[in-house]
From TrEMBL:
Organism of provenance: Maribacter confluentis
Keyword vocabulary terms for this entry: Cytoplasm, Transferase
Name of the gene: kdsA
PANTHER family: PHOSPHO-2-DEHYDRO-3-DEOXYHEPTONATE ALDOLASE
Protein name: 3-deoxy-8-phosphooctulonate synthase
Catalytically driven reaction(s): D-arabinose 5-phosphate + phosphoenolpyruvate + H2O = 3-deoxy-alpha-D-manno-2-octulosonate-8-phosphate + phosphate
Lineage: Bacteria, Pseudomonadati, Bacteroidota, Flavobacteriia, Flavobacteriales
Amino acid sequence: MDLNKIPQIKYTDSQNFFLLAGPCAIEGEEMAMRIAEHMVTLTNTLQIPYVFKGSFKKANRSRLDSFTGIGDEKALKILRKVSETFEVPTVTDIHTEQDAAMAAEYVDVLQIPAFLARQTDLVVAAAETGKTVNIKKGQFMSPESMKHAVNKVTETGNEQAIITDRGTMFGYQDMIVDFRGVPTMKQFAPVVLDVTHSLQQPNQSSGVTGGRPALIGTLARAGIAAGVDGLFIETHFDCANAKSDGANMLDLALMKKLLTDLVALKAVVNQF
């Protein structure tokens, strides 16, 4: 995968990790623009290659009454506006083959959710758009098995594949990150650590996923030290009232300190 082939991405020669970050879901234009402006300012200052993340819809929900989106086209148009306004690439999740072609008209990176990482038709549909495809490792999959997911992309003639580790199920309500998988998966594609989803606590009796956001910094630092190529961090300026995954997102106000620390750590890691 060539990072420079992602449209509008900057600072690819900075020797920094790259970053996919933004809200879990697009809740409206004002919130998306506010988060994007903050993140673009930070990443420009720190020279971090940056992709704005926001799901145009949420299909994997615990309860029927959970928030799923504001409307597909409306959310996708907001993602396009973010890209055009701040001159940054964007990434969003897709859940069906039809989503692939639709979302590809608006965003630069198509993301395969972890639960769907083995869905051949979905992965191939994403690859056939020619967009960069970010495949989240299923919570139930081994690092070695991600070779086959990547091959589904590359065998269509699309070399733009990324693997994102978002933790492995540990019992019913917790995740662990096995950092032994980082060098394994780097043999197949660049590896991103999804810091926030790796700290989820799913399957709560309330039907609302929990999380441990106090450990975001710990996990992010560990990922950089282990040699990941990029980080994935969901963030919001009002996590308590976010419509999706608020329990495991990073407060936007804490992002500056975290990224500053991580850039300093990456500079040390680069010496090795």
